[in-house]
């Protein structure tokens, strides 16, 4: 029997994305965003979570200040914690373990899998 991986599927911009569930710490609906331009264009600011500040990564064209931002995903990869604002969170899907991350389809729509190592720059 092949191992199964669980992916959280969400919408950002007009695209669907999947991220391995083991990297998701929390899904938060009403996160207060604090703009910090000094972090640079890749991280426009921070959110307050669990008595600390977590950087917000720019992703999928969903900006924390616009009305499309429906939720924030708080993620951990190795020792890096960051968050991304998303439009909608859909569901958790189980997929057989693949050698490489491949996109998959839900109701005829492509779900792009996120490689966090590439996303955060190695």
Mean pLDDT: 85
> Cα-atom Rg, whole angstroms?
14 Å
Residue fraction in strands: over 45%
Shape label: globular
Helix content: under 10%
The figure for the number of domains is 1
By DSSP (H or I, 4+ residues per run), the number of helices equals 1
Number of strands: 11
Secondary-structure element string = EEEEEEEEEEEH
Structural category: mainly beta
pLDDT < 50 stretches: none
What is the CATH level 1 assignment? Mainly Beta
**Between the first and last Cα atoms, what is the distance in angstroms?**
31 Å
Strand and helix map with partners:
Layout: E1 4-12, E2 15-20, E3 24-28, E4 33-35, E5 45-49, E6 52-56, E7 71-77, E8 80-86, E9 88-96, E10 104-106, E11 109-113, H1 116-119
Parallel strand pairs: 2-11
Antiparallel strand pairs: 1-2, 1-9, 3-7, 4-5, 5-6, 7-8, 10-11
Quick tags:
122 residues, 1 helix, 3% helix, mainly beta, three-stranded antiparallel beta sheet, globular, 52% strand, OB fold (Dihydrolipoamide Acetyltransferase, E2P)
Question: Can you put this structure into words, describing what you see?
Answer:
With 122 residues, the protein is mainly β. It has one domain (4-119): Beta Barrel (OB fold (Dihydrolipoamide Acetyltransferase, E2P)). The protein has 1 helix and 11 strands; from the N terminus they run E-E-E-E-E-E-E-E-E-E-E-H. The strands form 3 sheets. The chain has a 5-stranded mixed beta sheet, with no helix packed on it. A 3-stranded antiparallel beta sheet has the order 3-7-8, with no helix packed on it. It has a 3-stranded antiparallel beta sheet with strand order 4-5-6, with no helix packed on it. A hairpin with a 2-residue loop joins strand 7 and strand 8 (80-86). The protein is globular. The termini are far apart. The model has no long low-confidence stretch (mean pLDDT 85).
